[in-house]
Protein 1
Amino acid sequence: MKVDLLLKNAGVIDETGSFFKGKNLIINKGIIVSVSTELSKEYEPADQLDASHLIITPGLVNLHTHSPMTLFRGIAEDVSIDDWFNKEIWPYEKNMTEEHAYVGALAAIYEMLDHGVTAFADHYMFPESIIKAVLESGIRCDLAPTLFGLSDSFQADVAHSVELIKQYQHTHEVISLRFGPHSPYTCSFEQIKQVVDLAKNLGVGIHLHVSETWEQVEDSLKRHGKTPFQVIAEAGCFQVPTIVAHGLWVTPEDRR
């Protein structure tokens, strides 16, 4: 059987975390079809690599990123989250262009690939720029274009997300899309429910920030009488595949 690649005599860490020496891996069309100690004559690899100095592991997955923001790394690490967002980062971020976003995403992607990350879930603006970087690099990406409920362009941004989902979902092997309402403190209950209903209709998921600080939980309890987790649950978020970013302040009721 003709196959694409043989990785010879590699160290292998499998999905359980167990380590094995001297394994030969047969790869065809991006799929590992055989892992064995003995070299099999069944396969005829078009190429082979001596991997005796390498350890092969399952790819890592980064479940929440803002890849273009790699450009802002190191700015004001010693301030409160509100000051970081509003006073330090926003003056830079509001001047970001599509080209900046592309360069930032590409830098983040190659850093991830260099550290064994083969897939990431991104939540950011400039989705076309991120898609361009993903397709150029070959990494896998689950992308949620950010939707800010307080923005005058919210409905237009939702419509744009729908267009991107229809364009890229199931048509590109390395790209998946979902809706990205920013959070229950920047999007209203009605806005989150609208997006959830669209996600159900299109067969995709949600990615949003929830309970990142205790202050967010307290504010939600004052405004709604519910925690952020309870708000998004009532909006139907957990009826579709949902990535919760941060989720640092979780109550016992939230766990249920």
Protein 2
Amino acid sequence: VYASGRTAVDGHLVTRLPAGKEEWRFTAKAVGRGVLTGTITAAELAAGAKVLELSAPGMVAANVTDSAGQPIPCKVQFRPRADPGFADPKTRFDDPDFGPDSTHTAIKNLVYSHNGRFRQLLTPGNYDAVVSYGTEYDVAVIPLTIVEGQETPLRAKLRHSVDTTGWVSGEFHSHASPSGDNTTSQFGRVQNLLCEQIEFAPCTEHNRISSYQPHLERLESTHLMATCSGMELTGKVLRVNHQNAFPLIERRYQQDGGGPTVNNDSPIAQIERLAPWDDGSEKLLQMNHPNLPQILGDRDLDGKLDAGFEKMFGFVDVIEVHPPAAIFSKPASVAAVRKDLNAIFNWLQMLNLGYRLVGVVNTDAHYTFHGSGWLRNYIKSSTDNPAEIDTLEMVRASQQGHLVMTNGPFLEVEASAAGERAGPGDDLQAANGGVSLRVRVQCPNWFDIDRVQLFVNGRPAEEFNFTRRSHGELVSPDSVEFDHRFQVS
């Protein structure tokens, strides 16, 4: 490559090329206008500027609503497809690339819209528009034919097929450029959260207290997502010394938003500083992506047992244990446990040892191309309206374990014994050792479950392994894919 650049608003680009060559190959492209390739000769350049003419774009105009016709946020992916009706059916043109994964609104092949309405340039061709709004709504796949110089309407209605009454979806850990370790637009992060139907999301940038509130106000979407100021205090030792805390008071124009400084010498000293911040105010303290064997008893990772950083657990409310699918993996040997970073496996063993610490899953997203949304927590709530969510209610519900972790399906579990009922985080005494469990799982139309597995004391119980193959009568293709009550000793 001898030269590259972007044209100015008048379409001109001036660049330098080496003397002594007779011909150069070029590629010119623009969003919605396709790609032009060819050659430029020395004679052409000597005669004056080379004029490159890109094709006229097509345009898509979107209007996405819920079942009642009311506007809703959405994420729309544009996937090109080859059809007999367009050029050669064996060919497939590239995905559109609207912008890098650190920008906002139009990112790679997707568009975020906080109200379901937008217009976007597209290269002429055939596409599938995949329209979604988080994991509670059905997806709509709309075929589109974009014609050069014309506007094509995109209309979609999304059905709210998963009933999560009494629970709100939350993301407790995500980032943007104020964190200093990425270039992502914080405005784009808020769009990403909104369009994945995250209903509660504190702002958790590295080492500074910050807020999503100005972005929600700019989008006129404060009624769609609750938020609060917070931070991730990020020091050394790595993995161990990262803690989120929210809510915290943002002091604008002060260093780090008025937040505490890191302690790179001692994770224990750092969390002791963070826990009482803001004059001992009530807050949620989260341990991020922890190396649990190191914290429990191998501080210097030399393979010899010591006190670790166990004192940190006295300040922690919740622990990140993602990815949840790793619950089915176990170390090859007892010795391998100390080297294994399977957080959910180690967390289950900690529960057996009496460490009653609540597990959470978060994306820790640093970019906006599908960054947020693929993991989430459902927190028990007295309201289903994001505009009415109380931050301290979210804090207290999480501390009490009134929370369900998921990578998509919505899970409800209720235990009962002798007329008493309990849900996630509750205590239940069963005098005769028998408990009745009701398990209910809902999914939208774009993914399914194929197994419901009960774990007892951290181990999968073979007698309570309900798969689509072995218990087909219990696993339904409908939105409520599983609803079954069974007895457990």
Protein 3
Amino acid sequence: MSSYLTIARDAEAEVEVKRSRFLCSLVRVEDEDAARAVVERLRREHWEARHHCSAFVLGPRGEIERSSDDGEPAGTAGAPMLEVLRGRSGEGVSDVVAVVTRWFGGTLLGAGGLVRAYGDAVRAGLDRAGTLRRTLVHEHLLDLGHADAGRVESELRSRGVVVLDSAYADRVTLRLGVPPEEEARLAALVAELTAGTAASTVAGERWVDSLPS
């Protein structure tokens, strides 16, 4: 697993079915505590609503999945919400919590109607949120003199190398994010740009965001 999708931005969207309102709130989160905190925050904000159903997926492989019907008939809310998160754009989105707040409109929708409404609310929210891809990169440290640092950093950026950070002290240290398959290319670029006087060292790995789609 070298990449996965998450939402590009937090978003809200609402659908109405037979006067029942279904407000979907999508929030990017890093862990289960943060996801549950979002649910509780929205429960407080919309205290007058009857249901606050939720689903969340966490981790690069979707390792953690949870859902709640919050008083709706079993399987009619949280499960269809989770299914939408699992299947967005042919692959699931992760690191996201979806909360659908329902205001009852006076007409019972039946199990099928609820499944459609809760799923449609999450789909509408994802349309507004958009997606971005997170990629696993190796962190490389490149130590440079001040005279060369600006030029080298600019050249690396122009050739598609992600510069995660620049630290200035007696010398300049660039922290670069490089997919594993691009490490040989990085070594060649650094050798070219420094006339062979510098080389990067691996310092770890991290997940980084790409541009929204």
